[in-house]
Specification:
The complex is a heterodimer. By secondary structure, chain A is of the alpha+beta class. Chain A contains five helices and 13 strands. The chains are: A alpha+beta, B mainly beta.
Chain lengths: 291, 442
């Protein structure tokens, strides 16, 4: 644990000085920086430990990303159940389309079906590995496509306990990873990885995630508040289903906010990995065709 | 097979006839649906059909006595709007969206319009995607919030919304190609829809009233409403900058108003109670060049729209622009709420001769979004006239009551009443109101 805190302390300022187009370069320099920092401030033993912890962290993160990708494109339906402290429920349903693109990040469209006053409203997100995402909002009543700011990543998605940044698959390049330990979880062995967000508009100071070393599936993520580094939320994944013999997907995600006592469940349905989508399905023109 | 809509549907009607008009128009809408099912029956039946829509009630109580005692003291309206969408496996679709209103506070409240009825097909070529739409559709151009100067394709439906947020369906042939270099849209608009206004008994109207009798709607071009208009827009994004260049050539959407049936002296001396004293609408042939810009920089959006219009007397042309932006503050007061601040300056070179309320105005607004389960939000907006002393205030509270019912409460007030020189706002000086709207979605 001592070693982990040292790494945390040394790497955290790197994230604060990050400018988007420097991310790639800095990523390459991180190891070098670590060595320099370690050599000048730590013992040889600690240096080896820090190096291996961050390398192992990145290695696991890449394995997790690889395990969840490789689907080209998929569509799915999602039911969100919002629960307040008293247990009162409220539901939202939406449809999702995602496209993996080589090189740049994923492209995603969310279309809302319920509640009825937002029926047909759609979000288009182009995520990038090396810069802030682009987002567009489609308002069906006016047939207006509006480019919206992507700086609200920490904002609540549809008043749920999920924020916008929780709703899209995180790009490996947008975090600094550190392996903390291996421990048993849900009858498997899990690697516990700490993720430090490199983007300054993230709502979190850090995340701690549990991935099984079997198929590199996420089982649990703890989110820590950007403002005070307190444990804010916990996300648990369950009901994993194997699609087409290669894609593991959790059909249930449950986010609990420890500060407010509120929680949100995501129930995924009708995963379809067989659809053939292209970049043309994720343009402003195609957003106008959404219903 | 083609079905001609009964001529009767489109003729003018009196206040007492509103119910039969609704039925007639429903009948016409029904015919369109039957056509869809018989002519293209076999094909359409194999397509997936989906239906959704809203039923809304709109109620307004005006706080002051009307200028003209024949104008209503309140406003009540029932609005039905539904979308029926057929789509086949390759994505070709037909969309039908009727809009039907009932109400009797003035003759123009009750109305029916086909907001959308179009066939859509699209595809990919090697370097670009293409899209083709044929029928009645809605096209939105613009970036700003207070008004959208470049947004010329669809006619404004002021009878449906005095603030101009509703648009009439526009018949069009609309082709789009989009690729890495941007989006190019070409439109042929074969039919002109005259602007709608509140009727003689309605509030939010000019004095005298704007007549919508077909004999009072005049066209500069001999082809009249059948003149074929053209419009095009090219838009693209370069990093944080989005911009569009648009052109339009054809019949103006904004009419020139010409006094008829009385003299200017008569209007100034007394507000005429007589329907014969009226404004006629004249639609000139115009050319419009437009530019719309948005820059997206973190929490700030910068926006601008500029138009130049040719074909307007007396100078022949004029320029107008809106420039401003919005800035968002997240998690204000240590809560999930966000606060968005808007400010825009609207300027029309015609100044006192401008035919809309935005001749030289400052628009400022704040929207406080609670981001709660009910999507509660408060919006305050002020329009400050920089030429005259007029200052108006809009308040809006919105909240969802259940999954399918939402409510909004709105109010329009004058912080500084308009003076006589402000020819457009002055007749509205007694039109402050408090309104409650309920919307049921299905």
């Amino acid at each position: 644990m001592v070693g982990y805190f040292k790494v945390d302390f040394f790497l955290f300022p790197v994230g604060l000085f990050m400018v988007p187009d420097q991310l790639q370069k800095i990523k390459d320099k991180v190891n070098l920086l670590l060595v320099l920092v370690a050599v000048t401030t730590s013992s040889i033993a600690e240096q080896t430990y820090a190096q291996s912890a961050s390398e192992k962290g990145l290695q696991v993160a890449k394995a997790v990303r690889a395990a969840s990708s490789g689907f080209d494109s998929l569509t799915a339906e999602l039911e969100m159940t919002l629960r307040n402290r008293q247990g009162n429920e409220s539901k939202r349903t939406l449809r999702i389309k995602t496209l993996e693109t080589m090189g740049s990040g994923d492209k995603t469209i969310f279309v809302f079906d319920n509640p009825k006053d937002v029926k047909g409203t759609a979000f288009l997100i182009h995520s990038y590995k090396d810069k802030a995402d682009d987002q567009w909002l489609y308002l069906p009543a006016l047939k207006r496509v509006k480019r919206i700011r992507s700086s609200n990543r920490s904002g609540s998605f549809m008043a749920s306990e999920f924020s916008y940044e929780d709703m899209i698959t995180p790009e490996v390049e947008k975090f600094q990873h550190t392996w903390l330990r291996d421990e048993s979880c849900v009858n498997l062995t899990c690697a516990v990885i700490e993720l430090l967000p490199l983007e300054k508009d993230s709502g979190y100071s850090r995340q701690v995630a549990w991935y099984d070393t079997d198929a590199y599936r996420p089982w649990r993520v703890e989110y820590f508040d950007r403002r005070n580094n307190k444990h804010l939320k916990t996300l648990t994944y369950s009901d994993y289903t194997h699609y087409e013999g290669k894609h593991w997907r959790p059909e249930k995600l449950s986010m609990v906010n420890h500060l407010t006592g509120k929680s949100t469940d995501l129930d995924w349905r009708n995963f379809n990995f067989g659809v053939k989508l292209s970049e043309r399905d994720f343009t402003q023109t195609s957003l106008r065709r959404i219903r | 097979m083609s079905v001609t809509l009964p001529k009767l549907v489109f003729v003018g009607y009196g206040k007492t006839l509103w119910l039969s008009v609704i039925f007639l128009r429903l009948f016409a809408a029904g015919l369109v649906i039957i056509c869809a099912f018989s002519a293209c029956a076999d094909e359409l039946r194999s397509w997936d059909m989906e239906t959704w829509g809203t039923v809304a009630t709109k109620g307004r109580v005006f706080l002051d006595k009307p200028l003209n005692r024949q104008q209503s003291s309140h406003h009540a309206e029932l609005i039905f709007e539904s979308t029926v969408h057929w789509e086949n496996s390759s994505g070709n679709s037909f969309t039908f969206r009727p809009h039907i209103r009932a109400g009797r506070s003035d003759a123009n409240v009750a109305a029916a319009d086909v907001r959308e009825a179009y066939f859509l097909t699209f595809g990919n070529a090697e370097k670009f995607e293409w899209e083709f739409r044929l029928g009645i559709d809605q096209v939105f151009w613009g970036t700003t919030e207070s008004t959208n100067l470049v947004n010329i394709v669809n006619q404004t439906d002021f009878a449906a919304d005095p603030f101009g947020d509703e648009r009439l369906g526009q018949p069009m042939v609309h082709g789009t190609i989009a690729g890495d270099y941007g989006i190019l849209s070409l439109l042929v608009l074969p039919y002109h829809r005259p602007r709608t206004f509140p009727g003689f008994e309605g509030r939010f109207r000019t004095h005298p009233w704007i007549s919508d009798r077909s004999s009072d709607i005049l066209y500069e071009h001999p082809d009249g409403k059948r003149h074929v208009d053209f419009a095009a827009r090219y838009g693209t994004s370069i990093g944080f900058l989005d911009f569009g260049i648009s052109i339009f050539e054809g019949t103006a959407r904004e009419p020139l108003l010409v006094l008829n049936g009385c003299t200017e002296q008569q209007i100034l001396s007394s507000y005429l109670q007589d329907k014969t004293c009226r404004f006629q609408q004249i639609y000139n042939q115009i050319e419009q060049g437009g530019l719309d810009i948005q820059v997206t920089l973190g929490d700030f959006l910068g926006k601008m729209e500029v138009v130049r219009r040719n074909g307007f007397p007396p100078t022949g042309y004029y320029n107008a622009f809106v420039v401003g932006g919005e800035y968002a503050l997240y998690n204000v007061f240590e809560s999930d709420a966000d606060l968005t601040l808007f400010s825009e300056w609207i300027h029309d070179e015609r100044r006192e001769n401008a035919t809309n309320t935005f001749q030289n105005d400052l628009f400022m607004a704040a929207r406080y979004n609670l981001n709660d389960v009910s999507d509660t939000s408060f919006t305050v907006s002020v329009i400050d006239d920089l030429d005259y002393s007029t200052r108006s205030l809009n308040l809006l509270f919105e909240r969802r009551l259940t999954d399918s019912v939402s409510i909004d409460i709105e109010s329009f007030l004058f912080l500084k009443p308009p003076e006589q020189e402000d020819q457009i706002y002055f007749p509205l000086r007694d039109d402050a109101f408090l309104g409650i709207n309920l919307v049921y979605g299905f």
